[in-house]
Each structure stands twice: as structure tokens, then as C-alpha cells.
Amino acid sequence: MSFKEDLLKMFVTENEIPAEFNLPHEIHQRSYLCNGEMKEWNGNVHTVLSPICIQTPEGLKRKIIGTYPVCTETEALEALDAAVTAYNNGRGEWPTMNVANRIKCVEEFTRKMIAQKDIVVKLIMWEIGKSYADSVKEFDRTVEYIYATIDALKDIDRQSSRFEIEQGIVAQIRRSPLGVVLCMGPFNYPLNETFTTLIPAIIMGNTLLFKPPKHGTLLHYPLLKAFQESFPKGVVNTIYGRGHTIIPSLMESGKINVLTLIGSSKVADQLKKMHPKVNRLRAILGLDAKNAAIITQKADLKLAVNETILGSLSFNGQRCTALKIIFVHQSVADAFIEQLNIAVAGLKYGMPWEKGVSLTPLPEAHKPAYLKECIDDAVANGAKVMNEHGGTVAESFVYPAVVYPVNSKMKLYREEQFGPVIPVVRFTDIEEPVQYLIDSTHGQQVSIFSNDTEETAQLIDPLVNQVSRVNLNCQCQRGPDTFPFTGRKDSAEGTLSVVDALRSFSIRSLVATKLNENNKQLINDIVNSHQSNFLSTKFIF
User: Fold this and answer.
1) Does the model's pTM come out above 0.85?
2) Domain end call among 286, 308, 336
3) Residue 541 has pLDDT above 90, yes or no
4) pLDDT of 359 higher than 80
5) Are residues 219 and 315 in the same domain?
6) 426-464 burial by CB neighbour count: b if 16+ within 10 A, else e?
7) Number of alpha carbons in the 13 Å side-chain half-sphere of residue 416
8) CB-CB contact of 340 with 423 (8 Å)
């Protein structure tokens, strides 16, 4: 039996799916949230096919999970009007609501969201092929993020609850919303990374148009009623359909104040150019990345291999923070490759519900062919697949490939593969990987593996000016969520962390006056009568 045939055996029949991990039924979404109403949809729908294939008498077939609406420009513009009306030039109920009450709404939503945990987790697993254990972690981390956001906003508001006096001027400085936000999340963390922009955008008083990712749409459906019941009408509106059909008219309207996108820099550039008043558009973007690892001759190879495996193959390498190219000093390259191959061979592959599984099917139908194209191109330009069975494709599954030695002629040297392929580059002079990062259009993170103090220090100083995060003897990663998450060059715009996201979706505003008896009396009267939600000394506990 060939290895490919062995891989194909991982796919099971419908009856062999463990009941506790299976969906109770197909989910056919026929409604969407707009202006506080769950509106019925009778038009075209998109069939959601899982990356998990099922053994049938006719052969392997991707499991049908359900369907969702393919709405048109008309419905998208209706949702935009709802968000614009709810914001009402900053005069709406939500943007003028005090912080304490906005927090109560988000807390209510979170309670309702937690009640849907079981179905949302299963949908993450079935829609994108993420392991069940990691799907649970994504849900739990998202809830933790929401509560951390609430705590951070309380801290910000406490600091803003006092008046400042400077040069005879008394002022109160608070953060106020920006307007209507268009939020589009990624498929690889369809809940968590979407909510790391969506939640801070809402809680700061903005109104929202939310387009779920193509892979990872249905998992948001069980949460729509929670949005509807927790927020005033028009605050959260969902839009569905083909991005190229519904998004241009939204941007061209000039009514979008904030664009938040986790995706490709090419798409972000196109969308920003559509806005008629680009200077009025704020963008919070998490974009492409080609994070490198630099393994010097003074590295702990065992540690470097373990972290490379985690960094390059967690969720099949489908993470913006994944290690996507490995530079290793020629003196330790052979030993590194040998240990890396052993580590890859030790990873468990299979269905997402299997305990301890590391490698699972890929959600993007075109991805196996693209990865094979990258590997073939590398081989044609002098590289080899170093690990046994590397790059073997079995329907939606791709077995990891260690490709070495990669050079500048190859697609894998520049392109973000976003999948289970590990390109390894041999270097003799440390300036080679440094120059690679200087020349790269990406600038998110880098990992340095070295136990030499002087060598590490000399790498830190130039690299912090090329990327936003330098990791020492560990993989690239986003967390903890309290740390800033951003990138240079084409990798990001704006900064996300619990606190930074709140700042990104708001602007500092102040009320100020000359400090004299009349104005002191005026301010005291407003504060004591609680007639203003902005000018207030209320303290949130």
C-alpha cells in the first residue's frame, strides 16, 4: 500500500464519525441580522463543504455542513444604512451611551455566546478542519479576550473620570467612537481574530457591518440572536455574499469610517482606494507575513527544532504568525534537517476530533495544488524534499514537506505559502538572513535561535527596526493578548492588543474651558446633575 493510500484511509464513513463530535444536522441559514431584525432570505445560497471528506460508495466526498445566504449589493447597502442611522452622526443611542451601560451590553452578549459554545466549537472544527482541542481553545480564548477588553476599558474610563488643569485650562479627556466600522475576519481564526477587532469596535461606541470569512461563516450564525438581543438595533449588522460584489459599493459610498481586515495586503490596498475620502478612512489591518527563523551555529538545535515544528506546522502552518522560512547556518544545517525530519515524522495526522492530532485537512480547495506547485518549483530550481513522504497530497490533506536548500529563485523564498511546507535556507554569513528581512515586503516577526549573548544582542538591534516583534529561542506568536500585535511594511496597519485595539477604534476627545468661577460652577452643575454621559466623574468598578 502506498503512503497516499494510507493517508486516504484517515477519512471515515458517515457512521464512523463519533457522535459527540458530529453536527446534529446540516445548518441551512436563511436569515441575516440587519437593523435589529433577523431578516429572511429566499435568494441564492452557498453550500458549505467541509475539508473533511467522507467515504461513500462513489468515493471520497467533502461533507456538506449546510448553506448560507449569498446576498447582493442591495442587502449590503441596506445594512450600511442601518449602521449609519444607528450611529446618527455620533448622536445615536449607542455612541452616546455611557461606558458602563455599553459594558453591560457586551457582558450580556458574552453570556449568550457562552451558551452556544458546543455548536460554535463543532462548526469551527467542521468548517476549517481545526482540531477539536484547538477549536475549544479558540472559543475559550475569545471569551477571555472579551473579558480582558471589558477590564481594560474600565481602567481607561477610570483614568478619564477626572479633570486635568493645565495653564489655566480645565479639561476632561475621554475616548469617543469613530463611526461605522466594516469588519472582515480571517478563516484561520474565524472567531478569535474576528472578535479581536469586532468587540473593541462595538464597545467603544461604533456601529458595525460584519462580513464573516468565506471559510468560517456558519459558525457565526448561532451568535446572531445574541447580537440582536444584546445591542440596540442597527449596532451590529451582518452582510453575506461575494466580497467583490458587495464590498465595493460600501467603500465607494464614503460612509465607512473604519476598515478592519485580517487578510491580504492586495485586497486591503484595493479596498482603501475605493473610498472617495481616503483621509477620513481609518484602517486597522492584519495582513501578509513571511516570518523567518534564524538558527545560528550557537543555537540549541533540539530547542530550535521543537519550536520550528510548533511555529511552522501548528494548524497546518495556516497562521499569519507561522514560521514560513527557516535560515540555518551551514555548519549545523545537516543536523538540523535530520532532527527536523524526525520531528515531522512523529506528528500525528488524522481527523480533527482525534486526540493528540496535529495535522488535519485543509479548508481551501485550491491549497493542495498551490503547495504542490511551490514544491515542484523549488525542486526544479535545485531543492529537494528532505523528509519521507513530504508533500504527498490525499484529497484535502497535504503531508508536511521539508524543502532544502531553498534559494532566491524559488516561490517559497518570497511567497507566503500559508500551509504545511517548511522552506529551509542555508547561510554562511549572518548578514544573509538580516538582508532578507531588510529586502522583504513583510515585517511582522522573526525568531532568533542562539545561546550566545553577543551574537543575539547584535541581531536584536537591527531586526527590531525591520519587524514588530523579535522572539528569542521561541516561535513567532500573537499572544499574550495584552502585548502589542502589529507589523511593519505590508504586514499590518494599526496595532492590536487588548488596550491598543480600544485606542484603534476610538479617538481622544475633550471638553475644555478657562478656569474661572462661572465655568467651575457650570461644570459642577453638569457633573452633579448627570446630564452628560461624556462630562462625568462616575467611577466604574
Assistant:
1) yes
2) 286
3) no
4) yes
5) no
6) bbeebeebbebbeebebbbbbbbbbeeeebbeebeeebe
7) 24
8) no
Parallel/antiparallel/unpaired status of strands 59-69 and 397-398: unpaired
- Quick one: pLDDT at residue 320? 95
Rounded Cα distance between 372 and 391, Å, is: 7
Find the DSSP H helices in 129-276: 132-160, 192-203, 224-230, 243-252, 265-274
Looking at the fold, whether 150 and 246 belong to one and the same domain comes out as yes
pLDDT band for position 448 (cuts 50, 70, 90): very high
CATH of the domain at 63: 3.40.605.10
Residues 214 and 357 in one domain: no
Region of 506 (left: φ > 0; alpha: ψ -120 to 50; beta: rest) is: beta
User: Is 137 inside any structural domain?
Assistant: yes
pLDDT bracket for residue 539 (50, 70, 90): confident
Number of domains forming the structure of the chain: 2
| Distance from C-alpha of 308 to C-alpha of 325, rounded to nearest angstrom | 10
88 assigned to some structural domain: yes
**Residue 440: domain span:** 291-491
Query: Is 270 found in the same domain as 234?
Result: yes
10 Å CB burial of residue 299 (0-12, 13-18, 19+) is buried
Which grid coordinates belong to 244?
A: 467583490
My answer on whether 371 and 432 are in the same domain is: yes
Residues 6+ apart with CB under 8 A from 44: 69, 70
Classify residue 473: in a domain, yes or no: yes
pLDDT band at 1 (very low <50, low <70, confident <90, very high): confident
Amino acid in position 409:
K
| C-alpha–C-alpha distance, residues 261 and 283, integer Å | 8
> What nine digits make up the cell of 350?
488524522
Nearest to 182 by CA among 282, 95, 102, 100: 282
Domain with 445 in it: what CATH number? 3.40.309.10
366-392 pLDDT, tens digit each: 999 999 999 999 999 999 999 999 999
Indicate if 100 and 215 belong to the same structural domain: yes
Using CA atoms, how far apart are residues 476 and 57, in angstroms rounded to an integer? 44
Per the CB < 8 A criterion, the answer to whether 84 and 209 are in contact is no
Last residue of a domain, one of 222, 255, 286: 286
Mean predicted confidence (pLDDT) in 476-497: 94
Tens digits of residue pLDDT in 287-313:
999 999 999 999 999 999 999 999 999
Closest CA to 103 of 502, 519, 512: 502
pLDDT in tens, 29-38: 999 999 999 9
Share of the chain above pLDDT 90, in %: 99
